[in-house]
Amino acid sequence: VLLFLWRRVLTVEQSKCEEEIDGEMVYYACLGATSYLSDLPVTLTVTPEEYTCGSEIDGDVYNDYATQGLESDVLECSVNDRLPEFMVDDDHETFIESYWQSISWLRYPAPLHVNITLSFPKIYELSGDIEIYMPTARPREMVLEKSLDHGKTWQPLQYYAYNCFEAFNLQDKEQTTAEISLENATEITCTGEASDILPIIQTEEDQMVTFKKLLLYEEKLGVKGLLEKFEEDPDFQELFSFTDLRLRLLYPATDGEEVSADLFPKLRYYYTVSDIQLEARCDCNLHGIYCNKENGTVVCECAHNTAGPNCEHCLPLYNNRPWRRGSYLPQRESPQISGTANECQKCNCNDHADSCVYNSTLGYGMCEDCQHNTTGVNCSTCQQGFYPNISVPFSHPEVC
After folding, report:
1. N or C: which end of the chain has fewer CB within 10 A?
2. Which of 312, 205, 271 minimizes the C-alpha distance to 53?
3. What is the distance between the alpha carbons of residues 353 and 326, in angstroms, rounded to a whole number?
């Protein structure tokens, strides 16, 4: 990793889920806590694995590369010098330069295709820019993708190319507030602003590749407008949710000499990534703030009488109305007590049942398996052959 500490994140703050006011519990939408990538439970993989600089392929060690400036020096690398985990290590305090590097494109014309994949144990929601730092030339062509089903299917988030039309048959659009569309917010675009050709003379800014759609919409709409957009367009909101992120490196920066029979220019064609930065929060459907490890996996710490890894259903006795995801709206003056909880409501079973099920015909929950010799939709009558004990409340276990 290199030393880059500046990050752009949403100004939407973490909220609290509930509070007691005048003896009554008041519920709010739970906007989860955000974490840096280095603090998230993530697994990073590079495929093909043998495309890391210094690896052996078919008996040959690919450890030679050349610098990419106006003059080139030939150097050597080893696998231990260019480990994939250097892309997500948290060594800002040590000021040690570390980065992953691919092999050089000596196998041309075979494509130099490399996938860098970040896999998470559950659904997370992006809460700022994705920033990818490359200490050498940025690829001529690449794609940032995401998965919502742990890598079974993939969806592009952003295309990057020196020539967008030639590479992906797409128009080149800069990532600016002027270019983003309110009518087609889920449009996937291509930008040429983060691709290079050789020779390269870079600055720190030039080394960055970003995905900044989320914060561009916040700049264009404001926080309230962005949250309203989330509510009216679930597909737009889902665009920023993921279980996996993948950077597909498709074509390295070149100077046009890759077609030459000379091997030396090809030593300059490779990929490097020093740091991947993002902030995200675990998706708890606005019913939880934190996620915890439980039985080897990561699950939400649910509030609002909800349960499940993502707080995706109601507790057994709280199905008096259908489960609903929380809502970001309305936004109040205090960002810590905003939104609508859509909390699960307890069924009226007179303390004689442990579960209920919502009945759409009745419009409320029906109690299941009434105990203490009671029966009925609300466990509100005694079973045949039993008579009410009028000396105790009907919620008493010996009422029948």
Report:
1. C
2. 271
3. 27
| CA distance linking residue 262 with residue 107, whole number of Å | 12
What is the C-alpha to C-alpha distance for residues 150 and 118, in angstroms, rounded to an integer? 10
Task: For tokens 């900044």, name the residue.
Answer: 212
Strands 364-368 and 275-277: unpaired
Helix (H, G, I), strand (E, B) or coil at 144: strand
Cis peptide before 199 (omega within 30 of 0): yes
Helix or strand run (H / E) with residue 244: strand 241-251
Which amino acid type is present at position 16? K
- In the chain, what percentage of residues exceed pLDDT 90? 70
CA–CA dist 275, 116 (Å, integer): 12
Compute CA distances 344 → 27, 113, 329, 330, 361, whole Å: 11, 48, 18, 19, 18
Which residues have CB under 8 Å from 157's CB, separation 6+?
Answer: 144, 145, 146, 188, 211, 213, 239
First vs last C-alpha separation in the chain: 70
276 sits in the region (left: phi over 0; alpha: psi -120 to 50; else beta) called: beta
| Tens-digit pLDDT profile for residues 205-237 | 558 899 999 989 989 998 888 888 999 999 999
Integer Cα distance of 290 and 13 in angstroms: 14
Nearest-angstrom CA–CA distance, 274 and 133: 6
The model's confidence at residue 157, banded by pLDDT at 50, 70 and 90, is very high
Cα Rg, the chain, nearest whole Å: 28
Cis peptide before 109 (omega within 30 of 0): yes
DSSP assignment string, 10-28: -SPPP---EEEETTEEEE-
Q: pLDDT digit string (tens) for 253-291? A: 999 999 999 999 999 999 999 999 999 999 999 999 999
- Give the separation between CA 40 and CA 45, rounded to whole angstroms: 15
Mean pLDDT of 48-53: 96
State how far the Cα of 304 lies from the Cα of 315, in Å rounded to an integer: 9
Residue 204 is predicted with a pLDDT of 55
